Amino acid sequence: MNNVAIIGGTGPQGKGLAQRLAMAGISVILGSRDAQKAQACADELIANLKEKNGTEADIMGLSMEDATKAAADLVILSVPYSGHDDTLTTLAPLLVGKTLVDIVVPLAPGNPKAVQMPEEGSVTEAAQALLGEAIPVVGALHNVSAVTLNDLSRPINCDILVCGNDLAAKKRVMALIDTMGTKAYNAGLAESARCIEALTPILIRLNISKEVPFSHAGVRICPPEGH
Amino acid sequence: MNNVAIIGGTGPQGKGLAQRLAMAGISVILGSRDAQKAQACADELIANLKEKNGTEADIMGLSMEDATKAAADLVILSVPYSGHDDTLTTLAPLLVGKTLVDIVVPLAPGNPKAVQMPEEGSVTEAAQALLGEAIPVVGALHNVSAVTLNDLSRPINCDILVCGNDLAAKKRVMALIDTMGTKAYNAGLAESARCIEALTPILIRLNISKEVPFSHAGVRICPPEGH
């Protein structure tokens, strides 16, 4: 795994992922509609990683199209849900031979405590339908908060549920996630994204409520006590 | 909370719950189609709790109808999904003034690694539609394995996500769950059951696979490290 592209890489989730991956020694290419903005963001993250962590990060910024082309295999899609389908339609021809990692959660407009699923059942399934079965889509990283990702002083606090119809692609994504020092689990076919994407607003609800003593909840798969 | 009825209480999930609740000092009424079978099961659980745990348990067995009538408030429904709607239709008139706690997961026939959701979106929502809004339905306890519940030598290893449209009813169920020494979280409206029920086959998949070093996975809501 020499590099990874993050489309929508200048948003909070993308920036957090970029930094975690760069800390693991992976070359990161941020893709944005505005290539200059992407490069400025890359420069900012490089400086931040140097200052906070002593990391010599390899991050660059390009247009979404050039970032996709530059990816050896994995292209992470991290755009707001409202731009999901249009972005993918634009990038589809450039994704041939690569793997799409879809991390987009279809939060309901104006209500982050609910999802509004596309008619395909989930964003992961919608992306797979849009791209066709020849381009594997892997759903992952939906349940880790941007705040957690960007707080470089702490390890990632949760596990990552990974789903998709192409087992080999899933394993490559799980290997990528492992490099960030967190645990990825194979959560089954793309259909599992109906559950996994919908977990995010449940966690957001807990974060917003005063019911939990912390503000960036995640989930962990847990064994029986004593195991 | 003086008592709780468990309909389908002679199955593995029901027996485990009955024992955990009895250990917390709650009177449990097992409801089964066969009242004699229910009473035999109650006797078995009382003896087991005495032997394993030194607990003087208050458990009795009745017909499903009599168990529902005997419940002060909470009636837990723990039947196979195939019998869910018929059982509820029978019990509906007896549930007026009480709260249904639906723990049923709609596993796909012949495939415990997938769900087959009813057209209402989830079993919890289907139950609420069937009973009408006057009888509150709370979805809970979907993700804790029967093996975990029945292994009285260990505490319950996971958190419990609770959902439903009636906040007061949800709080009563969360208080019940707290008595078992585990943590219940308010996961939002009944619609959240689309996620929570679908988590179960994901956990079953992990249990069946050799990818995890344990066999009865649950989920925990986790805070950032160091919190």
Automatic annotation (TrEMBL), chains A, B:
Molecular function GO terms recorded: coenzyme F420 binding; cupric reductase (NADH) activity; ferric-chelate reductase (NADPH) activity; NADP binding; oxidoreductase activity, acting on NAD(P)H
Record-linked Pfam families: F420_oxidored (PF03807)
UniProt cross-references to InterPro entries, sorted A to Z: NAD(P)-bd_dom_sf, NpdG, P5C_Rdtase_cat_N, STEAP_metalloreductase
Gene responsible for this protein: npdG
Domain of life: Bacteria
Name by which UniProt lists this protein: NADPH-dependent F420 reductase
Residue span(s) of domain Pyrroline-5-carboxylate reductase catalytic N-terminal: 4-106
GO biological process: copper ion import; NADPH regeneration
Alphabetic keyword roster: Oxidoreductase
GO CC entries: plasma membrane
